[in-house]
Amino acid sequence: MSKELPNNNSNNNNKKQQRLPWLRAENDEKSAAKELVIDVPAASDATTNQDSPSSSKSADPTPPRLPFFSLFKYADLVDKLLFLFGTVFAVGAGSLSPFLFLVFGNLLGAFSLITTNPDSFTPELNKYILYFVYLGIASFFLNYVGTLCWRLTGERQSVRIRTKFLQSVLHQDVSWFDERRSGDLASRLSTDTFIVQTGISEKIGLALLYLSSFLASFIVAYTQGWKMALVITAAVPALAVVLVTTFTLIAKLTNESQTDYSEAGALATEILGAVRTVYAFGGQNREGDEYEKLLQNSQGIRRKKLVSTGIGFGMVNLMIYAFIALGLWYGATLLVSGEYSGQNVLIIFFTLLIGSFSIGNLGPYATAFASAQGAAYELYSIIDRKPSVVKTYSNNDEPATKIPRFSQEIEFKNVSFHYASRPDVQVLKNLNLKIPYGKTVALVGSSGSGKSTIVQMLQRFYDPVEGGIFIDGVNIKNADIRSFRDQLGVVSQEPVLFRYTVKENIRFGKLNASNEEIESAARAANAFNFINELPNGFESDVGERGSLLSGGQKQRVAIARAIIKNPPILLLDEATSALDSQSEAVVQEALDKVSIGRTTVVVAHRLSTIKDADVIVVLEKGEVVEIGTHQELLSRKGRYNELVSLQDLKKNENGDESVAISSSKGLVTDVIRSSKYLKSDSSVAVVEDLETGLPASSSTEVPVKEGIKWSNLVRLFGYNLSQVHLLVVAAVASTGLGLAFPLYSVFFGKLIAAFFDPNVASVQDQINTWCLIFVIIGIAGFFATFVQIVFIGLYGSNIFIKVRVLAIRNILRQEIGWFDEPLNNSSNLGEILGKDVETLASLMDQTIGQTWSSIINAIAGTIIGFYYSWKLTLVNLALLPIASIGVALETEAQFGSNDKTKKSFEEATFIANEAIFNIRTVVSLGLEDFFLRNYTKELDTAFKVSYRSCFIASFGPAFAQCSQFFNYAVSYYVGGILVKNGEITFQSMNIVIQSVFFMALAIGQVGALTPNITKALLSANKVFKLIDRVTLMDTTVGAKVAASEMTGDVALEAVEFSYPTRTETSVLKGIDMNVKAGMTVGLVGASGCGKSTIVNLVMRFYDPTSGRIAFGGSNSYDAKDRQLESLREFMAVVSQE
């Protein structure tokens, strides 16, 4: 908007040359093009906020992360109560695990009664079986409530964090946005908040469960025998050091990688917001390459994170088995010496074993917490940031002064100013200026002289570096900013309209305005007639960024919005410079009308429009060089006279500025032969802006509910077949880890029998053998864990870079009409590229590897069970539906809530992005709270659905965790009968039951991981839908246009056209045009008559409904018969911005 504003123009141009290096080359290359297309677009505030020094990756090699407990800093009292109950119940659930083995040890001792006292065996067996049942019921209740509490608080906090983040962003001072890219902020709101939510919800409950299981196991072990427990736990500090080091390093690397991903996300947002410009310059491949390059930059950090995680958790695995070996060896020593019974040794051993495994299970949760800490640091920093421009307090921390209605003068006293990002460029130098009440003051000067900076400072977007700005004697630094801005009406060069109706857009100037006030403002702005002729009058949607209105129509709606609150001060910043001559005349008439009786500050593009101003101020390099009326300044023959003379010279060279076509060419009658069919200003929807992005539509399409497609998982793996060796090796490692548990069951069954062997002397030799085996397993486990994590991670990271790149490349292959669909707006597409692909990527952390290991565990355990006792195994398999029911319930809850919350989340994202990308307009109109309320409303709608689904989904972990208790109860009851009847041995029974126990643990782990898999597969539906969509206008098909074929001739032959989303509205009817090579052609007509639609058709953004666009003169060919990429190489586009 401001020509001298560094961050808005000069820096923005530099930024585009850096971010879009192809643009400069493209312009140079096309300077010799034979086809010249000139359009008159309008833009949004987004372009002013794209450049950002801080948006680049931080130079800090060790980015900070948030302390863990600070993740919950925005929790309220209800959340704290949920923390309390969730923690108590999760800890209680975890504490039950060692009691399982306490009962188990005593039960094993009861089997000796089979030979010593057979009659008392069955009552004793029944007693311990009931203990298992009681523990199972308690486990279900504790797990259900604990999981539910953590899920509920996770949902509640995520809504609050998202809301607080947007609230903070919208209430920052405008200068803060000069150092940040809007795309980066939108990406953090979408992706980083999701990562934080993952780290503060049910994963904490599961982590507490495993942690409490670890602690309770050690407590039980010490009560059973402190000597053996002490020897084993002496090594725990080493385990703690490894875990803390691993988690710290993961958090650090996660924060670094998120910075890289945020930069890529910001670029994607910029591309999608300017898709027409990208298409016009043939930049699809270049932008796709740049996006891929940014993603590839994160690979180095990703590899470091994987290696660190693999070594860390591999060491944990090794140390656990070393502890097992140590415990077994020392337990055997105590047994042989007579200090402990076999029953005591096994209780201690198994409780410490389950405790050690519990620590090992913390891996994926620790990774999620570390990721949340890294992502939360920047999020929470922005939330906590206090803006320098406070709304209700002055700079002296005293209540700000509410300014009564302006009635005297505006005064700049010794004002000096430079932008924070360009401190070496002085924009205003000791400026002194008085603007009297009720007068029209025009600011003129060359580009960069400070005109628009003054307008922005009057809105208090920036404060002076020195001096002050006073309204009726009150320094605006000490004024209540809301009451001050309520007295301003602003009309800028590029009017920003929001995706609401015409009525609502006008009402944004005064939120409590009545319908009568809205109509009155529209009349004053010369907008009433064209609004009434729209399909739905004042209730007509204007589209995203006002794309369904022409430039002149948008400007008049913006004028109505500016004056509806009857402001005493009107700021007009080049309000007509972006319009064609006819539209300018209509808008200028409206501006002249609404300026009467107001203090008006005008920044003019054409000096002829301000010659009647009461005062004209001439600026040069930030200083006032002349001041006076038009005639006074002309008579002085100074700088103003030079500026007027320059414009008069250009006017004489170009002809009458009110006529857009050179009359010497004689084109008005020869070129447009069917102008009678052009739609009138007020009844057509026109896209005039190459920067507008994605127009809204009247489509009422209802999304179809899609189920989980397991084939998508296979397809994902297929995206990296060139590195399939990584997957094969990782699968072998995961298989090894999965087979470890069934092998344990065999070893443990034999161990149990050894500890109850009456020949105590042989126990030591047997145990020493098992100790060696466990050390070997630990070493193998280290390498298997490392390979699983690193190889799956590497394979997956390449996949998801490819998925992101495939998605954005296919997006950039779609026809422009596809972007007109409401579901394909830039916010939704950015959400899929960010959050949904991130959800898919979670599969490749440890989820898929652990799931595969668990499946192998279950299969191998079943085989071993059948080998030793098919009867007992069949009984145990019949119990598996207990856990499976829980998994099914959780999956259905996830699936059902996804469909219901998707629309609300997408709408909330769009609202937030629209506000962030148009922040200057939002701030100027005081709409921060309006957008925040609407955003919160959509979030609350989604939360209510998620809230209800939590009650069902929490059954999954509860069933999965309690199943082991019920399995033990049934297994030992049936096993006891079989042993008593002599059908199986004591050793075989224990091997089968241990294999079933580890199988139940595997099912429990699958149940815990099911939400991640379900979410990922639901996200896959959306991602692959993008990748698979076949464009209706492939730019690569057809014969290439030879240089000899492009003569410069272009013709429209019987062209009829309606936009794909508004098929009921005919924009062009039977248009015939014949433009010969070398002609200069101007398309004129009222706003919305179809001028830019013709440009869009010539550029082949759309194809005609009927008729054709022909090139080549006498040897003409239909544009559809040539390769679109090569066709556009012969065209150049000059847009408004």
UniProtKB/TrEMBL annotation:
Q: Name one GO molecular function term.
A: ABC-type oligopeptide transporter activity
Q: Where is the ABC transmembrane type-1 domain?
A: 84-371, 728-1015
One BP annotation, GO: oligopeptide export from mitochondrion
Cross-referenced SUPFAM superfamilies: ABC transporter transmembrane region, P-loop containing nucleoside triphosphate hydrolases
Sequence ranges of Polar residues compositional bias: 45-59
Assigned keywords, A-Z: ATP-binding, Membrane, Nucleotide-binding, Transmembrane, Transmembrane helix, Transport
Keyword set includes DNA damage: no
Which PROSITE patterns does the entry link to? ABC_TM1F, ABC_TRANSPORTER_1, ABC_TRANSPORTER_2
What is its membrane topology? Answer: Multi-pass membrane protein
**GO cellular component terms?**
mitochondrial inner membrane
Q: Which residues form the ABC transporter domain?
A: 410-646
Q: Which InterPro entries match?
A: AAA+_ATPase, ABC1_TM_dom, ABC1_TM_sf, ABC_transporter-like_ATP-bd, ABC_transporter-like_CS, P-loop_NTPase, Type_1_exporter
Q: Name one Pfam family in it.
A: ABC_membrane
Give the transmembrane region(s): 81-108, 128-152, 204-222, 228-251, 306-332, 344-363, 724-747, 767-795, 852-870
**CDD domains of this UniProt entry?**
ABC_6TM_Pgp_ABCB1_D1_like, ABC_6TM_Pgp_ABCB1_D2_like, ABC_MTABC3_MDL1_MDL2
- Major localization class: membrane
Region of interest called Disordered, as start-end residue ranges on this chain: 1-24, 38-61
Q: What is the similarity comment for this entry?
A: Belongs to the ABC transporter superfamily. ABCB family. Multidrug resistance exporter (TC 3.A.1.201) subfamily.
Q: What is this protein called?
A: ATP-binding cassette, sub-B (MDR TAP), member 4
Naturally occurring in which organism (per UniProt): Physocladia obscura
Gene of this entry = ABCB4
